[in-house]
Specification:
Number of strands: 9
Oligomer: single chain
Structural class: alpha/beta
CATH topology: Rossmann fold
Bound molecules: S-adenosylmethionine
Number of domains: 1
Number of helices: 5
Strand content: 25-35%
Helix content: 25-40%
Strand order of the largest sheet: 3-2-1-4-5-9-8
Mean pLDDT: 95
Largest sheet: 7 strands, mixed
Radius of gyration: 16 Å
CATH architecture: 3-Layer(aba) Sandwich
Order of helices and strands: HHEHEEEHEEEHEE
Length: 206
């Protein structure tokens, strides 16, 4: 089981830093290029588990409404433009009050247990318009799902995360969305031998 206390402590510490992404600028740039065309077409974007919104804030233009949701209150300071809002809430408690053209869940699934993962897919399905797009991105296990609990030498802190199995994550998403297109990131971004980065583009368009 993942350790919720360790995870929340980890993100509370990270929120004090200017950047909460440690995977580097090349991957951030890759994600900007991947998602910007969809953000440009959207009038309303929701970023669930937004952190500082380094990705989402940089791909929406000033006419697009961007809502960030995260359970760490300090991230609110980053959403300071007239078109940006922030709601401090755990994703499992969050109730959408609006529908969005684009909903993002990037780098979050690994911090959710299975029940939470499913409930947030349900939330995502309610967040988007009939023609809307959901993008779920995380690292998947190369084999069976596994949980890491322990000291991360790379991050120099205690860490906890769950790495889902690719096929079963697609099956779970398929319950909520008709179309799923998986985009595996270039091999060079996969720092660890047992996981890989993948984005699932989910929609209900026929
Ligand atoms: C890897 S960061 C990703 C930030 C952003 N989505 C991005 O791609 O730049 C994960 C974020 O998820 C948030 N998070 C994790 N579990 C959460 C939960 N149960 N409810 C709300 N936010 C959560 C953390 O606070 C953190 O900001």
């Amino acid at each position: 089981m993942i350790d919720k206390e360790i995870i929340k402590k980890f993100w509370t510490e990270k929120s004090k830093e200017k950047s909460n992404r440690w995977s580097g600028n090349t991957i951030l740039e890759y994600e900007r290029n991947l998602l910007a065309p969809y953000a440009k077409r959207a009038n309303k974007v929701i970023d669930l588990g937004c952190g500082h919104g380094e990705l989402s804030r940089s791909i929406v233009d000033r006419h697009t409404y961007l809502l960030g949701v995260d359970y760490i209150p300090d991230y609110a300071n980053s959403f300071d433009k007239p078109n940006q809002s922030f709601v401090c809430s755990s994703l499992t408690d969050y109730k959408p009050f609006n529908v969005f053209d684009l909903a993002l869940l990037l780098g979050v699934v690994t911090y959710l247990d299975l029940e939470e993962e499913n409930s947030i897919y349900c939330l995502l399905s309610k967040c988007i318009s009939t023609t809307g797009l959901v993008v779920v991105k995380n690292q998947c296990s190369n084999e069976k799902e596994f949980v890491f609990n322990g000291y991360s030498k790379f991050l120099k802190t205690s860490y906890s995360a769950r790495y889902p199995e690719y096929d079963t994550q697609i099956n779970r998403l398929s319950y909520w969305f008709n179309n799923i297109n998986a985009v595996k990131y270039p091999e060079e971004f996969n720092t660890w031998k047992n996981t890989f980065h993948v984005a699932f583009f989910c929609s209900n368009k026929s």
